Amino acid sequence: MKGIRLQEGKEIITRRLFIYFLLSFCLFIAIGQLEHCINVPYDRTGAVKIRRIIDAMLFASPVLFCRKKRIILPYLLFFNLYLLSIIWYFRTYVTIMPLSSYLMFSNLRGLSGSIWDSIHLKDALIVLPSLCFILFYIFIYRNLKSRIALYKSVIIVLFVGVLASIPYWPNKRPAYDQPMHRFSIIGPAAFKEYGIINYWIYQIRLQRSVSNEEKEWAYTFMDELKGRQHFCSCNSVKTLRRNLILILVESFQSWTVGMKHKGIEITPYINKCVSAEGTVYFPKVLSQVKDGRSSDAQLIINTGLLPLNVGAASSLCVGNEFPSLAKALKEKGYTSVSFICDGEDFWNQGATSIAYGFDKLYDKMQEEAAFKDADKNMFEKGLLHLKNLKQPFYAQLVTYSSHMPYTEPTITDTPLLKEDFKDSEVKNYLIAIQAVDRRIARFIDGLKKEGLFENSIIVITGDHEQMTYNRYEGREQLVAEDCFVPLVILNSPLPSAFTDKVIGQEDIYPSLLNILGCCDYSFKGVGESVFGDSISNYAVFRTGIAVGGKNVPDSIKQYRNNCWKVSDILLRMDCFASHEGLLSDD
Which of 24, 60, 26, 53 is nearest to 129 (CA)? Predict the structure, then answer.
């Protein structure tokens, strides 16, 4: 009898291991197809395939322990949906979806078009291996009853888990070649090189509490920052008390300003604004958003901090205490309001508007209008509110209708419709920007009729790159210059000597503080005012790609890179809630 049980146990172990390695093979193929779809260069070493095998074996491990098909089948369904979500997110944002974003379900509303546009027929190849396994598994599955099989299964999983952690073992590789560094700088490439499990390890490690060493480094950096920031004298603007109207345009990029496609101007109104007296225009503003995309742009412009290394600050740091543009202006007697087309729960804008010091958020300004008319409604309704608002005020208006997907034109009375483009999405993007240009024109005309224009500083800028210039030119290689967004300041009380230089989005916040006479505010951001006597002429993209003038000193490069690091630390430690030593004493 004992011999029979032993024989049955061996059969169970053999059968279970066969199922396990079969699923591991299927998931290896699926993960390989996913990595193939993430079209970025990376180190093609033999270790890459080994880590893919490790990932597959770990993700297949539930079949070693689960005795019921009704558990395995939903597990594989969710796992495949996870793989698909990675590639769909990558096609839109050119980065790997952070784990924290999976909790922001409200962001899915209104994005069905974008999601559908990200789905390709070849994505079925990711699901196909699991589907084949399920069909096979249903017919040969047997319950696991042997303790020996269970113990050996645990040993296998632990062994594979240890193999997965090898990249983090002590080694002599330089810091720039370590997983934590590579994920921070070149996320998609590191994802392909180190695999899914290591990406999870990286994200989990970044959610840890801030170390004492990081805190001390941040204190030192912020002390040194006070000596770096050079503001133009605020004496000339302190008594102006002009309104600030910030128009944050969805996916607006610099290459469209002043551009003519076969003689057709893309932004005719903004072109006139750029050349008007009193306008200061910066065409070389490097987009610096990360996982939070549009919400990161609001973070950067309103608080002077760069985004988190991983995850959206609008989700992970919404309970933080922030110094901000609205709070600085409140000290000067300003009222601050924000207008958005979507709902307050999209990117947690209801909570972030409070955290950033806005007195009122007007959400759902799109009302019942179609997506393409969202901005038209917002500008019209926003103007009605602004003309009755106590002055001086700060108003932020966030546009929406130039959001992807660019599958159809948003207006039908443009000569661009008759032009042939190799890429129809580029054509529809240009039409969308042309439509926004028209609506901004009507809005500013409305400000003039209501007597608000002359007493307002009007800022027009893009929230992030989307349809990059290389796409228009048909180039595959992306360079930092392709990601520039414009910064147009109408009725600027100060000139700038650096309009032809490279700046980052991080420089917008201190620059606005400067022209609004808030030079004495407690926190001036990590960037530089473009109205001072010097700037770095150097900026760093989220992937680590940098752009700037020739012969930029290494100290400047290191400083601008460190702005990313210190912002991440300050956000994670919620420093402004309790560490007053980080604020300026000026």
Answer: 26
